[in-house]
Amino acid sequence: MTSIPHVTPTNNECTGDLSASVPVKAVIFDMDGVLVDSEPIYFEVERSSFAHFGASMTEEEHHTYVGVTLESMWRQVLDRHQLTNTVEEALSYHRKNVMQTMIAHEGLVAIDGLERWLNWLQEKGIPVAVASSSPRALIDLIMEKTGLGRYFDIRITGEEVLQGKPAPDIFLYAAEQLGIAPAHCIVIEDSQNGVQAAKSAGMHCIGFHNPGSGRQDLSRADRSILSYDDLWAIKENLPFDEQLLAKSKS
């Protein structure tokens, strides 16, 4: 794991109406449940892995792990269920299980309406990044299988920061890589852990209510959407930086 000591968590949370906020200069996307509807696939794989190690998992507990890194998830599972396996054993088995499943999966596509939104951001010169708790190999695999890789040169994984979501580290590091101050970033997230991370980073946050992500409390997000059609409908009302938009027109 690469430590990022210069990325410092902040309690400067932005709240309230997005239209009244500081101008937005970049958009940071979570991946699973936001770019691709992959959470239901993960739920099945995780249930299989939990059963393999003898963890009797309730649906309520399972939903609390959405958005966290695999290492964090397994540390909590092994501790809560008093299992004798090591984190390394659980991670090795589960990562292999996930990668085999995702490589073989034929129906992995971008969420409806996403590419229209990404193309619009590209046309307007608004930089984007993906910041996901998933491992690097999985992010790259999904980017390749869905064709979304052409939009995301900046891909941040939870393995690159000291603390995963709900800590803000991953979003602060993404902003750093974009060269944009955190207060000028919008995060799109589908999980309670992700929304908390975005708000703790001092960023705007749009909560994406994806039924496939389970029961997630997104109430701390500045605005909520049910689809990218919803986001498309309000794009002109979002506080994007006027200088960026003016450059794209010229």
Note the gap between the termini.
Answer: 43 Å
H/E element order: EHHHHHEHEHEHEEHH
User: What fraction, in percent, of the residue positions are helical?
Assistant: 40-55%
Largest sheet: 6 strands, parallel
Q: What is the CA-based Rg, rounded?
A: 18 Å
Report the average pLDDT across residues.
89
What low-confidence regions span 5 or more consecutive residues with pLDDT below 50?
1-16
Structural class: alpha/beta
The order of strands across the largest sheet is 3-2-1-4-5-6
Task: Pick out its properties.
250 residues, 42% helix, 6 strands, six-stranded parallel β-sheet
Give an account of the 3D structure.
The chain is of the alpha/beta class and 250 residues long. Helices cover 42% and strands 10% of the residues. The chain has a 6-stranded parallel sheet, sandwiched between helices. Helix 8 (192-200) links the parallel strand 4 (185-189) and strand 5 (204-208). Helix 1 (39-53) crosses helix 4 (87-104), helix 3 (70-80) crosses helix 4 and helix 4 (87-104) packs parallel to helix 6. The longest helix is centred in the middle third of the chain and has 18 residues, at 87-104. It is globular and about 60 Å long. The N and C termini lie far apart (43 Å). 42% of the residues are buried. The model is unreliable at 1-16 (pLDDT under 50).
